[in-house]
Write a structure and sequence with these properties.
Chain A has 112 residues and is mainly β. Chain A has strands at residues 4-7, 10-13, 19-25, 31-37, 43-50, 53-57, 64-70, 73-78, 87-94, 102-103, 107-111. Classes of the chains: A mainly beta (112), B mainly beta (113).
Chain lengths: 112, 113
Amino acid sequence: DTAVSQTPKYLVTQMGNDKSIKCEQNLGHDTMYWYKQDSKKFLKIMFSYNNKELIINETVPNRFSPKSPDKAHLNLHINSLELGDSAVYFCASSRFGGRAQYFGPGTRLLVL
Amino acid sequence: QQQVKQSPQSLIVQKGGISIINCAYENTAFDYFPWYQQFPGKGPALLIAIRPDVSEKKEGRFTISFNKSAKQFSLHIMDSQPGDSATYFCAASQQTSNYQLIWGAGTKLIIKP
């Protein structure tokens, strides 16, 4: 059973489109994260939710909107996609205070 | 003060050698220092972690050395194998910042057969 899963795995789209990425974890964790990894492999935290409440909200364009319908799911919606949004987006989960974060396989987004 | 500086950016080591990756931090409130390993096309995975009350932690061929006074920690991979070729990230976190991980920039490690 996959611990942290993301869909889709690949996303190729045109500039200006709106897209969503979904994440689910079956580890029983109460905290979930979205990270962006650029072409230089740098990992940047975007958002974190604990028990469906936003606890980390880094400087991210407001075109990015996370949504956590329940503790096991965290989705990311991106409006008006730009070329610079091309990256790999990782979802992760942890137990709050548990320190170890478990990552999904990533969603490779390419904006043309 | 929130930065974690990682070096080198890339590293080539012969099979059987010792790989060493270093990280430095400024924030003395950090209380958890993990290393993550990322293979191409995969998400990062926790490899080993240390808390500042110990100076060394060993798990198999992987060892973290921690120097609290110098605010530095390093990952040592003994008897490096081609299967260890990956990107390695150090990170740090503190309880009072919602345990947010502050990441190093990553080191691409290549083990030559």
